[in-house]
Amino acid sequence: MSIKPLKTQMIIVVHRPLLWLISLVSLIFLLAALLWSVFEYGRNIAGYDSANADAYIQQLQAQLEETHAEVVETQRKATMLERNSQIDDDASVQIKETLARVQREALELKKELSFYKSIVAPEQGSRSLAIQTIQLKQDNDGAYRYKIMVSQRGRNDRFARGTIDVNIIGVRKGQPVTLQLAEVSEQVKKPMKFGFKYFQNFEGVMTLPEAFYPDFLQVKVNPSTGKIKAIDEQFEWSDLTAGGV
User: Fold this and answer.
1) Of 70, 100, 120, which one is at a domain's C-terminal end?
2) Are residues 109 and 210 in the same domain?
3) Is the same domain home to 94 and 165?
4) Within a domain: residue 149?
C-alpha cells in the first residue's frame, strides 16, 4: 500500500498598513500647508496687488488639482485594500474617517479659491454683503474663540461701511435668553464697525455664563448705505462647533 504525500498550500498576504498611513499623513500635512497659505494670503489682502493675486491663484489652482489627484488615488487604494481584505475593521474605519476629513478640507480649499477669484474678477451687478465664514472653537478652559468674515460681492470698487451685531440665543434655567456679544467678550465694544472693499474679519474670545445652553448664533450686518441690503441670519451652534460654515 503506497502512501500519498501530503499536499500543503502556503498563502502569503502582504500587509502594508504603515505605508498606507504614512501616505495619508503626508496628504494631511499637504492640505494643512495649503490652508495655512490661504489664511496668510487673506491676512494680507488689504495690500491687494492684481499681478501677485493672479499668480497666487494660478499656484493655488495647481495645488488644488494635485490635491484632488491624491484624493482620487487615496480612494482607489482604499477600495483595493478593502477588496483584498488586507486591513482589519479598525484600520478600515480609520482610513474612511481620514479620507472624509481630507475631502472636507479639499472642499474648503475650493471655497477659498472661489472667494479669492471673486476679488480679482468681481461679478458685475449690484453690490451686496455676505457672511463668508463663521468659525467657533472651544478652548480647554471652556471659552470659545470665534471668527466671523464678512465680504462684499458684486462691484467692490467702493468701501462698504456699517455696523455688525452678534447675539447668542439660548436657554438658561428653562427660559429663552439672548446674550449680546459685548456681554460675553471683552474684545467687543458696541457698536462693531466695518469698512472694507473685499472683506473684514471679526475675531475674539467669548465666555458664556454658567448654566447657559446656546442654540443659535445670530449675525446682523447693517450697512450705512441704503443701496446695500442688510443681513440678519441665524446659525445653529452645534453646526458651528462641529467645523464652522
Assistant:
1) 120
2) no
3) no
4) yes
Q: Measuring CA to CA, which residue among 183, 172, 168, 177 is closest to residue 218?
A: 168
Q: Is residue 229 part of a domain?
A: yes
Nine cell digits for residue 56:
497666487
Same domain, residue pair 181 and 80: no
Residue at 109 is within a domain: yes
With 0-12 CB in 10 A as exposed, 13-18 as middle and 19+ as buried, what is 212?
middle
For residue 35, give its domain range.
17-120
Contact of 113 with 137, CB cutoff 8 Å? no
Task: State the Cα–Cα distance between residues 180 and 183, nearest whole angstrom.
Answer: 5
Amino acid 115 reads F
Q: Which of 50-54, 70-74, 160-164, 178-182 has the lowest mean pLDDT?
A: 50-54
Q: How much of the chain exceeds pLDDT 70, in percent?
A: 62
In this structure, what CATH number is given to the domain that contains residue 178? 2.60.40.2420
| Alpha-carbon span 196 to 150, nearest angstrom | 9
Under 8 Å between Cβ of 99 and 74: yes
Look up residue 187 and give its three cell numbers: 474684545
Rounded to whole angstroms, the Cα distance separating 227 from 223 reads 9
Report which DSSP code applies to 211: T
Confidence of residue 163 (pLDDT cuts 50, 70, 90): very high
DSSP 108-175: HHHHHHHHHHHHHSPPSS--EEEEEEEEEEE-TTS-EEEEEEEEEES--SS-EEEEEEEEEEEEETTE
